[in-house]
Every structure is written in structure tokens, then in C-alpha cells.
């Protein structure tokens, strides 16, 4: 995960959004290096024109804001996808595996809660369909990621925040305590090799 996040941080720092992160687009070399593939849907971020097509990103890895049709989005859409991949690696099954937008929205709200603190939520024409879900609280991330340490759960929780304005960035992921702990462990282990 660290290599994937480091790679996406480089892509984001270069002014791009990948927009199609999924397991099939993550390659691992024989030396164990992670390579991000398939930039066919990637998009340069243009400050003057940030309206984009909301239908990109494979459905299982598409964040709530895109499912609702938001055309102005940022690089944190890639972080949602990485969170879904992270969960899939931990649980050995996709977190969200519905085949239709509506079913995906319902599944996301069911597992991650309704983003009542996101001002942009009221701008969507589809929102009336989901009024019944407004009281749905976010499940504990531990129900989603049963086999993860507390620091890993915290990182995953921040990656899968349904409020895109609160979702963690790639740079923040790299600075997360989980990777600080892993880095210290690797450094200690290297002393004994």
C-alpha cells in the first residue's frame, strides 16, 4: 500500500488524477515494486476548468460524490479507490460490489454513513431518493476491516470518508502514523541483517 500511495502522491503532485485505480491497474514487478498502470482515463487538473465527467472510475472503486454526479472533484477520488483496494486486500473480497449506481450509493451509505456534514450533498438532484438514509450513521471501520490494526483502521477510515472535503490526501496518507510505525520496524529489522 505504501508504494501505491507514494506513486499516486507523485501523480497528484504532478497535477494529475488517475481516475481508474483498481487492482487490475496495479502491477507488481518480480522485485516487488508497485507500478501504476493504465492512464487512459487520467486527467490533468486545470484550475480554470475543473468540471469533469463523473462517470469515470470503475464502479466498485468510485466514490459517492461521483456516483451522485458531481462534476467538480479533486484528487481525493483516487484516495477513495485506494481505500477500496486496501479493504479488498485485507478482507480478500471487494468492499462494494454492486452493479448499478443506485445500489452502490445505498451500499456506501449503509457501510460508511450519510455525509450530513458535506455541504455539497444538497446540490444533487438524486438526493431526494436518499432522504430515508439521512439518519444512517457510519459503521465502525472495524466491521469493514476485521483483520487490521488500530492505525490501519484509522487510515482506512480517513480514506473512505464519504465527505470528499474531509477525505485524507495522498501526502497525508504518507505521513500517517501507520507508515511511521512500519518505517521504524523496517529500520530496526535492518539493523539486525
Automatic annotation (TrEMBL):
Record-annotated Protein kinase domain positions: 1-179
Keyword Transferase belongs to the record: yes
Keywords linked to the UniProt accession: ATP-binding, Kinase, Nucleotide-binding, Serine/threonine-protein kinase, Transferase
Signal peptide start-end: none
MF-aspect GO terms: ATP binding; protein serine/threonine kinase activity
Listed PROSITE patterns: PROTEIN_KINASE_DOM, PROTEIN_KINASE_ST
Pfam families: Pkinase
Stored InterPro entries: CDK (IPR050108), Kinase-like_dom_sf (IPR011009), Prot_kinase_dom (IPR000719), Ser/Thr_kinase_AS (IPR008271)
Database matches in Gene3D superfamilies: Transferase(Phosphotransferase) domain 1
SMART domains for the chain: S_TKc
GO cellular component: nucleus
Family recorded in the similarity comment: Belongs to the protein kinase superfamily. CMGC Ser/Thr protein kinase family. CDC2/CDKX subfamily.
Subunit structure: May form a complex composed of at least the catalytic subunit CRK2 and a cyclin.
The protein's name in its UniProt record: Cyclin-dependent kinase 2 homolog
Protein's organism: Ichthyophthirius multifiliis
Amino acid at each position: 500500500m505504501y508504494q501505491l500511495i507514494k506513486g499516486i502522491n507523485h501523480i497528484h503532485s504532478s497535477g494529475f488524477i488517475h481516475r481508474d485505480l483498481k487492482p487490475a491497474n496495479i502491477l507488481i514487478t518480480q522485485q516487488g515494486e508497485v507500478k501504476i498502470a493504465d492512464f487512459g482515463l487520467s486527467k490533468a487538473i486545470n484550475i480554470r476548468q475543473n468540471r469533469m465527467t463523473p462517470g469515470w472510475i470503475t464502479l466498485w472503486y468510485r466514490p459517492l460524490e461521483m456516483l451522485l454526479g458531481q462534476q467538480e472533484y479533486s484528487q481525493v477520488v483516487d484516495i477513495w479507490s485506494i481505500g477500496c483496494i486496501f479493504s479488498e486486500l485485507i478482507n480478500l473480497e471487494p468492499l462494494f460490489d454492486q452493479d448499478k449506481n443506485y445500489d452502490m450509493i445505498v451500499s456506501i451509505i449503509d457501510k460508511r454513513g450519510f455525509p450530513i456534514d458535506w455541504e455539497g450533498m444538497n446540490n444533487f438532484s438524486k438526493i431526494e431518493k436518499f432522504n430515508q438514509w439521512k439518519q444512517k450513521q457510519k459503521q465502525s471501520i472495524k466491521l469493514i476491516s476485521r483483520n487490521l490494526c488500530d492505525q490501519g483502521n484509522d487510515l482506512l477510515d480517513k480514506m473512505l470518508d464519504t465527505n470528499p472535503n474531509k477525505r485524507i490526501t495522498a501526502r497525508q496518507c504518507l505521513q500517517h502514523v501507520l507508515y511511521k510505525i512500519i518505517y521504524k520496524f523496517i529500520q530496526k529489522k535492518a539493523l539486525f541483517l
